[in-house]
TrEMBL record:
Organism: Agrococcus casei LMG 22410
Family: Belongs to the NadD family.
Name this polypeptide is given: Probable nicotinate-nucleotide adenylyltransferase
UniProt entry tagged with the keyword Magnesium: no
Pfam families recorded: CTP_transf_like
Domain Cytidyltransferase-like residue range list: 10-168
GO MF term list: ATP binding; nicotinate-nucleotide adenylyltransferase activity
Gene responsible for this protein: nadD
GO biological process terms on file: NAD+ biosynthetic process
Superkingdom of source: Bacteria
Pathway noted in the entry: Cofactor biosynthesis; NAD(+) biosynthesis; deamido-NAD(+) from nicotinate D-ribonucleotide: step 1/1
Catalysed conversion reaction: nicotinate beta-D-ribonucleotide + ATP + H(+) = deamido-NAD(+) + diphosphate
Length: 199
């Protein structure tokens, strides 16, 4: 039966840089959960991570990576908000802009495990359905959460991480085929990841 309300997936991430693991996760969830669109939301100043690439670069790489898919788009809500990004704020801002959409928040297995550390966790369940996808090297565990608000999805395993992409660029290894072609070119044009700042 067709859904009466619009179904919007939300893929939050640092996207430093965006890679094919992110894109496959979004595409698989969109298919399985019959989503109309997926919005990629690059984080502002991530409180768990230091020395991330300036938000404008991460935003533009996300735009380049998603440009060819008519159902994918990128939101600035997190990068335009001051301070660290909390998922509750992302969901509230997207809900305010998209009041008629049902929201589906997509995370990889590693990010979902951190969920209990998120601000206002109880309110998260009211705002969105959460979908945790498999990720190589991370155990998918979702016990103890409201079952009707959380789903698990097995997706094709892509052992790609942004950390590894950054390290490869720094060491002079290619990132072709790990990230979209336009992102390879963007990284090269802007000399990103040549030096990894000390943590
Ligand atoms: P970093 O190494 O800098 O942490 P990352 O590759 O984990 O980068 P993030 O921007 O931290 O990328 O991740 C955004 C979201 O995408 C998270 O929910 C994460 O779990 C998920 N994700 C990232 N890579 C994959 C992958 N290869 N397969 C499935 N999910 C992924
Ligand atoms: Mg990560």
């Amino acid at each position: 039966m067709p859904h009466t309300r619009r179904r919007l997936g939300i893929m939050g991430g640092t996207f430093d840089p965006i890679h094919h693991g992110h894109l496959v996760a979004a595409s698989e969830v969109a298919k399985h959960f019959d989503l109309d669109e997926v919005v990629f939301v690059p984080t502002g100043e991530p409180y768990q991570k230091r020395n991330v690439t300036p938000a404008e670069h991460r935003y533009l790489m996300s735009v380049v990576a998603t440009a060819s898919n008519p159902r994918f788009w990128v939101s600035r809500v997190d990068i335009d908000r001051d301070g660290p990004t909390y998922t509750i704020d992302t969901l509230r801002d997207i809900k305010a802009r998209e009041p008629d959409a049902d929201l589906f928040f997509i995370t990889g297995a590693d990010a979902f495990t951190d969920i209990v550390g998120w601000k206002d966790v109880d309110q998260l369940w009211e705002l969105a359905h959460f979908i945790s996808v498999t990720r190589p090297g991370h155990k998918l565990e979702v016990s103890g959460y409201p079952e009707e608000r959380v789903s698990l999805l097995e997706i094709p395993a892509l052992a790609i991480s942004s950390t590894d992409c950054r390290a490869r660029v720094k060491a002079g290894y290619p990132v072709w085929y790990l990230v979209p072609d336009g992102v390879v070119q963007y990284i090269s044009k802007h000399h990103l990841y040549r030096e990894i700042p000390k943590q």
